[in-house]
Model the fold of this input.
Amino acid sequence: VCIIRLIDSYGYSQNPSDFIVYKSPTMYFMELKSHEHKSFPINCISENQLTLMSKWDKLEGIHSIVIIWFVDCDTTKLFTIGYINECIAKGIKSIRYDDEHGIEIPAKKKRKFFNYDFSNVF
Done:
C-alpha cells in the first residue's frame, strides 16, 4: 500500500482529501474526520473536497471515502462519497455513528486513541 499525506493548512485546503492511498488496482481519496457527538454534520466536509472527491470517484479504479471517528461513541466508520452525496440530495444534514451505511473500522483502544485495522478497507 502506498499512502501519501496531503498537507492541510489550518483547516482550509484546496486538496481533495487528507490522504491519497493506492493499493493495486485501486486508488482512494481518503478524508479523515473526528467529531465528539453522535452525529457528524456533513457541512464539516468542505464544498471543494466534496466536488473533487465526487468527480474522481466516477473514474474507474478510484474510490473516494470519508472516515469519521465518533469520539464519544468510540466508533470509527467509513462512508463512501456516493452515500454522502445521497444524504445531501435528500436534505440530510448529518450522519449518525450508528448509520447502517457506514463500514466500521475495527480498532483496539489504547488510552485515548486507537490502533486501527484497515484490512477490511484495503
Observations:
- The chain has a mean pLDDT of 91.
- The beta strands are 2-5, 19-23, 26-35, 39-41, 62-70, 75-80, 94-96, 103-104, 107-109, 114-116.
